[in-house]
Give the backbone structure.
Amino acid sequence: MRDIKFLEVRCANIARCCCEWIGCIGTLEEHVAKCEYTLVECINKCTFEQKIISVMRKDLEHHIKSECPNRAYKCKYCTEEGTYASIMEDHGNLCLKKPVPCPNTDCTLTLERGRVVEHVASECEHTVVACKYHSIGCPERKKRKDIVIHEEDDKIHLHLSLNKVSQLDETVAQLNHTVSQLNGAVEQLQVVVKELTGKTEKEVSVSIDVPNLELEEKPVMCSSLNLSSHFHNSISRVIQVMIDKPEDSV
Ligand SMILES: [Zn+2]
Ligand SMILES: [Zn+2]
Ligand SMILES: [Zn+2]
Ligand SMILES: [Zn+2]
Ligand SMILES: [Zn+2]
């Protein structure tokens, strides 16, 4: 009777592919352990549907070098390192050096992601911008490449400037009027305070902090708000003095 270990067998991998190995059963285990067609797990433990991917031993090197999503990988645009998957997905969506198209549809430029904001804000010919005279009322908005021609139209902008100047004149006149009304009210208050201090026979110290209103010499627009709050404070103080006065001295 022949010894069983000399029985000839084929490699089990023949069912899945084409290992031609035939040998005696005693050496089968040793063959399978190094058979090119045996499935082996990826050494980077990459997974597909939560299972570690296995490839035939003959393909493992290629998988690790060029297919494995867990292989070490460096971003080709910057110095960031990680796995192939992390660089291509997470980092790929953030990398400031990665070339991306300008978001303005008609612009054909591709530029580093980190420069896009600056490009759109101050360079791109296709960004819609306001006319530089918008502060004097020009409502025009055009692509940067077209706004320059519009801005050279002196006629429109001179007309707008004149309108603006007459508006400002009106505002100044209104403010002057308000200030002179306030001046009058302050003068009346000073008279009232004088009368009150005379009647009490004792010194009632009321100081009204009236700003020196020399309208011709001072800018009017910016002082009007301060002035009305001064006025309000002065009135409050006079009323306080009247309330605090003892009854018999009225
Ligand atoms: Zn085999
Ligand atoms: Zn892998
Ligand atoms: Zn990068
Ligand atoms: Zn652009
Ligand atoms: Zn304009």
